[in-house]
Amino acid sequence: MGIKCAITGKKPTLGYKYARRGKAKYLGGVGKKVTGKTRRTFKPNLQRIKVEIDGKVQHAYVSVKAIRSGMVKRPLKQKPFQLAGKV
Fold it and tell me: pTM for this one?
């Protein structure tokens, strides 16, 4: 179906997009009417990032909700090589 989150298991889900016309009742109309229904997919916000899994650094698709909530162990970024005499 598509890619899914390595942490939470989120994946695209199917749903409908409703097309409506008319004026809402609270605005003085007779109400909104559904004129069409089409299938669509709701896609999760997945990012391809480096993740540390069992001590190994791998690329994985992870949802932004998992990244922001701290469920993901990110690898440490190493400093560039420096000579001992220079500061």
Answer: 0.68
Cα–Cα distance for residue pair 22/38, rounded to 1 Å: 19
Contact indicator for 51, 62 with CB cutoff of 8 Å: yes
Q: Which residue has the tokens 């992870």?
A: 62
Contact 79, 18 (CB under 8 A): no
DSSP 26: G
Q: Helix, strand, or coil here: 64?
A: helix
Tokens of 15: 């749903």
CA distances from 6 to 27, 35, 39, 62, 69 (A): 46, 39, 26, 6, 15
Q: Which two tokens stand for residue 77?
A: 């970024």
pLDDT tens profile 14-52? 999 999 999 999 999 999 999 999 999 999 999 999 998
